[in-house]
TrEMBL record:
Keywords: Cell membrane, Membrane, Transmembrane, Transmembrane helix, Transport. The lineage of its organism: Bacteria, Pseudomonadati, Pseudomonadota, Alphaproteobacteria, Hyphomicrobiales. InterPro entries: EmrB-like, MFS, MFS_dom, MFS_trans_sf. This is MFS transporter. The keyword Membrane applies.
Length: 447
């Protein structure tokens, strides 16, 4: 049935995975005020609806990459997709804020399993000279989900129910799982590494350490920064992360092969993804909140503003993929972060005027630059490591990337709770994005 087009059908299905994970970021940000009101949640508690997903994604994504390398990418993908679908159902039926946060945490685990193996599957299925185009097409399909997410979130939360923003995942996951099952062909399913010992100590220290640090950042404003419990979380988190580094460097089969970070291009690309995710979460969540809480816009109007901003990615993703194949990763990557950071600073400066369209216009510039800040970085970091390490490299990259979103949500949520200033949130984010241009210039090598 699929013939020679089998890799492209597989690419289309795996692009849906990227779309779902992005959809669950964009759709929730717009619906957050409605969810908070419906489930009687406080402001900081409602932020956990976003950050529970990001936190478990961060903690488990390296595990997902490792699991795919050990047991075979195809079967691990199917298991992760099933978990994601069940967690989406639980989130859609959640009776309280606590249940919703728990379901979102399970969703994050499912996404953490399927996302790194899907990236490895695309890398294996296409030769190096076509990977830029493949990743560009994948980002384009993901952009369709991403661009529709804010409007879907606004429409469901305003006209129907916010619960449908999670329930809509079920039919999409079913279709994706069936296509992947029919098109994935690889010998890695027979090359199991199940005999390797799982790095339990590394996983435990990473999980508890990251959770402690994020709870410290998230709950500091509410509990008090000098509260002994808050300070203890900081100490525990830092000590466990130090212990994690020592454990990983000494193990013959670590959860995360930190030696890969010695490859400068891989590290530079990974750091740029950290900032990319930090920036993306801030825009999708805090701009949507700003439009509703400060400008009095409806969820639909807020979702429409963010959707308009994302629409240019449907074109710029294809342009970026081809440009990256032609010029290499560094030039388009530096351009993307420069334009993106300038757009965020402009949003911060114009937000004081509290005018809807003066926020939307720089948002469009921000959205158009997103593929330039992601596609070249992915091509650079995946191309810098040996083929047998693609699953591990994808896991490391996604761990650090999603940690960027987790830190962005926690830190900016704390800043907003302490100061009430959306402008400060946007200005800090814009400066961070611009500073990343120098990191790219110094670390990402020319092809």
């Amino acid at each position: 049935m699929f013939g020679e087009n089998r890799p492209w059908w597989l690419l289309g299905a795996l692009s849906g995975v990227l779309g779902l994970t992005v959809l669950d970021e964009t759709v929730v940000g717009v619906a957050l005020p409605t969810i908070r009101s419906d489930l009687a949640m406080g402001q900081l508690a409602s932020h956990w609806v976003v950050n529970a997903y990001l936190l478990t994604f961060t903690c488990f994504v390296a595990f997902g990459g490792r699991l795919g390398d050990a047991l075979g990418h195809g079967r691990v993908f199917q298991a992760g997709a099933a978990l994601f679908a069940l967690a989406s159902l639980a989130a859609g039926l959640a009776p309280t804020g606590g249940y919703l946060i728990a379901a979102r945490a399970l969703q994050g685990i499912g996404a953490a399993v399927i996302f790194p193996v899907s990236m490895a599957m695309v890398t294996v299925s296409f030769p190096p000279e076509k990977r830029g185009t493949a990743f560009g097409l994948q980002t384009t399909v993901g952009g369709i989900f991403m661009s529709s997410g804010p409007l879907i979130g606004g429409l469901f939360s305003q006209e129907l129910s916010w619960r449908w923003i999670f329930l809509i995942n079920l039919p999409i996951v079913l279709v994706i799982a069936c296509v992947v099952l029919a098109t994935w062909q690889s010998t890695d399913e027979n090359n199991s590494k199940a005999g390797e010992r799982f790095d339990t100590a590394g996983f435990a220290t990473l999980l508890v350490g990251l959770v402690a640090l994020v709870v410290f950042l998230m709950q500091g404003p509410e509990w008090g920064w000098t509260n002994p419990s808050v300070l203890m979380l900081l100490v525990i988190g830092l000590l466990l992360m130090i212990a994690f580094v020592f454990i990983e460097l000494r193990r013959p089969d670590p959860l995360i092969e930190l030696d890969l970070l010695a490859i400068r291009t891989f590290t530079g690309g990974t750091l740029s993804f950290f900032v990319f995710q930090f920036n993306k979460i801030v825009i999708f969540v805090f701009v949507a909140m700003f439009l509703q809480e400060k400008l009095g816009r409806t969820p639909v109007a807020s979702g429409l503003a963010v959707m308009i901003a994302i629409l240019p990615t449907l074109l710029t993703s294809l342009i970026t993929g081809r440009l990256t194949d032609r010029l290499g990763a560094r030039p388009p990557l530096m351009l993307g972060f420069a334009v993106n950071g300038a757009a965020v600073l402009l949003i911060g400066l114009l937000s004081t005027l509290e005018n809807y369209w003066l926020v939307v216009l720089p948002l469009i510039l921000w959205g158009a630059s997103l593929p330039f800040a992601s596609i070249p970085a992915r091509r650079a970091l995946m191309g810098a490591v040996p083929k047998p390490k693609h699953g591990q490299a994808s896991g490391i990259n996604l761990t650090i990337q999603m940690f960027g979103g987790t830190i962005g949500m926690a830190l900016c949520g704390s800043i907003l709770a302490a100061t009430g200033s959306y402008q400060l949130v946007f200005m800090i984010t814009g400066c961070l994005v611009l500073a990343t241009v120098f990191v790219i210039w110094s670390m990402v090598e020319r092809d």
